Structures are given as C-alpha cells and as structure tokens.
C-alpha cells in the first residue's frame, strides 16, 4: 500500500509540470544557438562559442548538439523540458538513495527528491532560473545535478576503494569533474571546494590511499578548469566586450561585491526559508539518513564553515566579472545551500526526529503540505487556465511568420501575448513590453533578432499595447 501511496503522490505532484512542458516555447538564446548550428554547422558553431563567447566546453556542447532548434525541430523543445524533469528527479532520488537506509523504497526516494526540487522551484529567482528554458537548463540546472552527483560517487568509491565497483565510481567522479569544470565557473569552484576539504580530511586522517585519489581528481578538475576558464579565447573576448565596465582584479572591489552579495543573500526571506527547510522535511528524514563516518569525524563547526564559505567561494568568479553577479549566483547558491545545509542538519540533529509523534514531526508535515500546496496550486492553475491561451497565441504567431516567409518583404508585425497572468511556473514574467522572454516592440531587440534569424525573416516586432488615456 505504501508504494501505491507514493506513486499517487508523485503523479499528483508532477502531472502539471510535465503537462506544462508541452506548452513551453524556446527563449532567445535557444534560437541563437540553433541558428548558429544550422548556418555554420555543428562543429564550427561549437568552436565559435569556444573562441568568441565562453570556454564552457560542456555547456557549449549541450547548447549546440542537444538543442532541438539546431535540427529545425521547433516542437522538440517540449520533449527537452520533459526530459529535464525526469533527469532532475531521477538524479536527486539516486543521490538520496545512496545515503538513506536500505529499507526505503525507490518510490519513497523519488517522493523525497520531489520535495527538495519543488522547494527549489519556489525559492529560485526568475532570472537565470526558468525551469522551462533549454539554455538555463544547460548553463545552470544541469551543473546543479553534477554538483550533487559528484560527491555521492566519491562517497561510493571510498566505500569500495579496491573493487571494480570502486574503480567505476572513481571514473564516473572524474568524468563529472571534467563536465563540471566545463559547465560554469560556479560549479568549478564548488567542486574544487569539495575536493579540497576531502583532501584536508584525509591528510588529517593520514589515509594516503584515499588522498591520492582525491589529489588525482583535484588535478583533473584544475586542468579542465584551466581550459574552460583561463585558456579559452571566448572568455577574454566576452570579458572585454560585455564586462569591460565591471570586470576587476582589484581585491578591494571583489571584497565589496562579495560582502554585498552575502548581505543581499541573507536579507532575502527565501534564504530564511532554506535555513528552516530541514524542519520542513524532518518527518520525511526520520530514520532514513545513515550516520556517515566521514561526517562524524568532522567537527560540526567545520561542517557549518564548509557550507557557508562555499557560498562565498562558489560565487567568487561572478564577483570578479561583476556583471549581474547577484542574479547569476543566487540560483546555484540556493541549490548548494538547500542540499548541504539540510544534510548537515539531518546528520547532526537526527535524534530530534526519532519520535514520530514529536511536535517537530507534526510541524514538519504541516509545513510540507503548505509549501507543496502553494506551488501545486500555481502549476495546476497555469496548466488549466493560462497555458491554453498562451499556446494558442504563439501558434497564431507561427502562422503569421510562415505567411511572411512567402513574401519578398519579410518584416513581421505580431500582436503581443495578452490575457495571460504569469504564475512563475511556465510563464515566468510579464509577457510583452520589457519582458525577459517575450518579443519586444523594437525589431532591433536581442529577442527579436534571434527569433528572426532562426525563422529566416528580415525582422520581427510586436505591436505595443496602447495605454488608455
């Protein structure tokens, strides 16, 4: 009966999110990367990104080779959204299954993973974190999964150091380190922080066998990061073109930006929610987390230092560039904080939840029900009310573009999306004028240029909404 219960819960939780995936549309960078792949060829487009835009060799691979628009497959973006949800849930559930008691079922771990992911969706910022964006998935959300999978495979390797299984886990950890270094700078820094702390631990424990493996992974990560961050021509070109007014090596300026970021982060109510999140999930965490010898040998004050200094160290590359440092850091820092903070709390405060009838368990179930109901209400409302209107107007746009391609003058004027209330699930912000995601009233706007390039028209713009006098 428990398996049936968990299955029903999973269906109720994820049905609107999977359904909304079939209403999703590409965003501006999706069109841009798809146009490059189609016009320049896949490999040349990949090299172009590496030389002119970014050294993130793995992210660039995803943006070019896994982008459905690279294959002129507009509807394919919907299947990517569905796949991204499956990958996120499965990855988090797998990580949880590796550190939970063996008697817990797979469906339970998927349910627990859903609680974590849905909480992240509630507190994640609008910018750089849209769940229905292929570009954001490639640049930020996929690296988030690497960030939690890598230490889990390291842990599994250290449990079976000399076996074939241990060797397999070491190889997977090495591959994840390479991919993480080639994903984004924040992932590189946080993976480095994890490996440095593991090395320090084994130095103190005088465990040379495990230390040499960590040293190998550290060198592998550093070499991959050097290629992605330092050696790639695209980084220096982008910094000189985009970030010229904000890029700085000055320690004082970097320190000021870091302090500003920390103050901003801990002044947000969403950060407070993360700090009390372990209370949310105490009832689900009851008796499931096994005590790890690795953590038990580390003082709790250092565990806390590891969590909170990771916030500073992880966001440091963006403080150096200075360009939208807060917005570009918060989404992954929140992910880091949710998992690392909760894990430390559960490992050190597990005795609080031993009694299923305790006040903490009752409070936990109430809090879980409240926040899950909050986001589920938004998701179901958007699926039932907003999404059909949203999709029908996009289909009209595509028909207008198809007609315009038959004409000599391929300038297209479209109507704005109207009658849609953003609920920050699929529809993330105000559509239309000044939108992060929708087409603008000027044909020279970044969104419009990328849209026009992919569809093969001269230009596109939307008619501004006239304000009533």
Could you please describe the fold and organization of this structure?
It is a single chain. With about 475 residues, the chain is an all-alpha fold. It folds into 2 domains: about 1-375, no CATH class; about 385-460, no CATH class. The chain contains 20 helices and 2 strands. It has helices spanning about 1-20, 30-40, 40-50, 55-65, 75-100, 105-125, 135-160, 165-180, 185-205, 210-230, 235-240, 250-265, 270-275, 275-280, 280-285, 295, 300-320, 325-350, 360-405, 445-455, and strands spanning about 410-415, 460. Strands 1-2 form a two-stranded parallel ribbon. The longest helix has about 45 residues, at about 360-405. It is globular. The mean pLDDT is about 85.
Task: Summarize this structure briefly.
With 469 residues, the chain is mostly helical. The chain has 20 helices and 2 strands. The protein has a two-stranded parallel ribbon.
Q: What are the key terms here?
A:
469 residues; mainly alpha; 2 domains; two-stranded parallel ribbon; 2 strands; 71% helix; 2% strand; globular
Given helix and strand content, the structural type is mainly alpha
Please trace the helix and strand order, writing H or E for each element.
HHHHHHHHHHHHHHHHHHHEHE
Helix percent band: over 70%
Based on Cα principal axes, name the global outline. globular
Indicate the low-confidence ranges by residue numbers: none
Main beta-sheet annotation: 2 strands, parallel
> What is the CA-based Rg, rounded?
23 Å
Structural domain tally: 2
User: How are the strands of the biggest sheet laid out side by side?
Assistant: 1-2
Task: Report how far the terminal alpha carbons are from each other.
Answer: 62 Å
What count of helical segments does DSSP give?
20
Mean pLDDT: 87
Note the beta-strand portion: under 5%
What's the β-strand tally?
Answer: 2
């Amino acid at each position: 009966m428990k398996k049936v219960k968990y299955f029903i819960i999973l269906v109720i939780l994820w049905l609107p999110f999977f359904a909304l995936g079939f209403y999703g549309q590409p965003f501006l960078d999706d069109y841009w990367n798809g146009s490059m792949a189609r016009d320049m060829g896949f490999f040349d487009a990949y090299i172009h990104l590496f030389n002119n835009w970014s050294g993130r060799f793995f992210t660039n691979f995803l943006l070019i080779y896994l982008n459905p628009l690279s294959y002129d497959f507009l509807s394919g973006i919907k299947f990517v959204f569905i796949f991204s949800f499956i990958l996120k849930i499965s990855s988090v559930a797998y990580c949880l299954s590796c550190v939970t008691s063996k008697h817990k079922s797979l469906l339970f771990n998927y349910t627990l993973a859903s609680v974590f992911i849905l909480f992240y969706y509630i507190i994640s910022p609008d910018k750089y974190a849209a769940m229905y964006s292929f570009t954001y998935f490639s640049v930020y959300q996929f690296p988030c999964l690497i960030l939690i999978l890598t230490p889990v495979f390291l842990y599994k390797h250290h449990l079976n150091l000399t076996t074939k299984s241990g060797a397999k886990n070491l190889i997977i950890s090495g591959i994840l380190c390479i991919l993480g270094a080639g994903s984004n700078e924040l992932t590189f820094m946080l993976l480095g922080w994890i490996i440095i702390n593991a090395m320090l631990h084994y130095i103190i424990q005088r465990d040379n066998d495990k230390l040499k493996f960590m040293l190998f992974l550290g060198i592998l990560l550093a070499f991959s990061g050097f290629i992605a961050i330092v050696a790639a021509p695209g980084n220096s070109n982008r910094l000189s073109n985009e970030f010229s007014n904000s890029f700085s090596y000055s320690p004082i300026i970097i320190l000021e930006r870091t302090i500003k970021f920390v103050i901003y982060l801990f002044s947000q109510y969403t950060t407070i929610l993360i700090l009390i999140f372990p209370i949310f999930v105490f009832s689900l965490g009851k008796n499931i987390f096994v005590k790890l010898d690795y953590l038990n040998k580390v003082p709790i004050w250092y565990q806390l230092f590891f969590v909170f200094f990771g916030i500073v160290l992880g966001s440091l590359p963006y403080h150096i560039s200075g360009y939208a440092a807060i917005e570009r850091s918060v989404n992954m820092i929140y992910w880091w904080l949710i998992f690392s903070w909760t894990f430390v709390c559960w490992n050190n405060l597990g005795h609080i939840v031993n009694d299923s009838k305790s006040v903490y368990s009752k409070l936990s179930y109430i809090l879980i029900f409240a926040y899950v109901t909050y986001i589920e209400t938004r998701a179901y409302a958007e699926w039932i009310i907003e999404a059909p209107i949203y999709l029908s107007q996009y289909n009209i746009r595509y028909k207008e573009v198809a007609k315009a391609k038959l004409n000599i003058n391929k300038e297209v004027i479209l109507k704005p999306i109207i009658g849609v209330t953003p609920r920050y699930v699929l529809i993330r912000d105000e559509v239309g004028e000044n939108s992060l995601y929708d087409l603008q009233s000027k044909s020279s706007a970044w969104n419009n240029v990328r849209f026009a390039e992919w569809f093969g028209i001269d230009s596109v713009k939307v008619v501004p909404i006239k304000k009533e006098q």
